[in-house]
What we know:
The chain is an alpha/beta fold. Helices cover 32% and strands 26% of the residues. A 6-stranded mixed sheet has the order 3-2-1-4-5-6. A 6-stranded mixed sheet has the order 8-18-17-13-14-15. The protein has a two-stranded parallel ribbon with strand order 7-16.
Amino acid sequence: MYMKILLILFINFLLISHVYAEDIVYVCISQSMPNETIENYINEKTTNKIVFIFRGFDKSLIKYLLPLLKDKKVSMIIDPFFFKKYSVDKVPCFISIKENQIAKMYGAVSILGFIEFVSNYGYKSHGSRGKTWIISEPILYDQLKKQIDFKSISKRISDNLYNKLDCFEFSLCSDNIGYELNNLFKLKNDIVINGKLLEKKGKTNKIDINNFELILFNKPDQIDKIKSYLTANQNKYIILMFACGKQLKSIQSQFKRKVYLLNDYIINRLQINCLPVLVKHQNNQFYISKL
């Protein structure tokens, strides 16, 4: 049962693309910290969104958290890569991001105290300002490596994506294509990928990340046009999605960036019926036009 929970958490972690945003305070914690300290953080009121992050998971974590959380609505994730990316080696550690600048502080200070300190002294490393504790949870990925044959799983995923998935067929977009969609939406159909129900019809959803662009395409002869657009818009956050699993490897080799596989969810959500298209997301609106 324990390994089943671990596996579910890890698969969810792989499926969800964590994009860490501004105006959020990330609080790295561990159950090595006193209950009272974590409870104070959970109960602290701020105007900023607070996300609590654990490095890993063990049998005692759920039992540890239940009495602290009770009926509270708290954003809490397990992300060992966040700890690695920001070199977090003790807790509590507070991190805030703004315009590619990072504020980081260790020590048992209040969340409001951290926010005020950053406001006064800027986005940089502020060292340690209070008592700290070791991180008691093991790294989730290291735990799973001992239990799961990742090479076998990776090969099955690769075979499924690249060799078995048919290409989506789309007509070429006309010059007059252009429409808007609200960020909040209800799915018109069930989203089923590889025979598994991903999202149910009627579910309301929302994308919280703002100011990004998607380029959706399905033919190799569209690559030059896409490269020209990327060159002219280097400061933008742009995601590429290709509509054919069988050709994805060869397409990806022609870009110096990740190319994702276009799926039913995106097609359904954005009401795509022709390619290539440019999707802009600004101020909670999608703007779809011909590339």
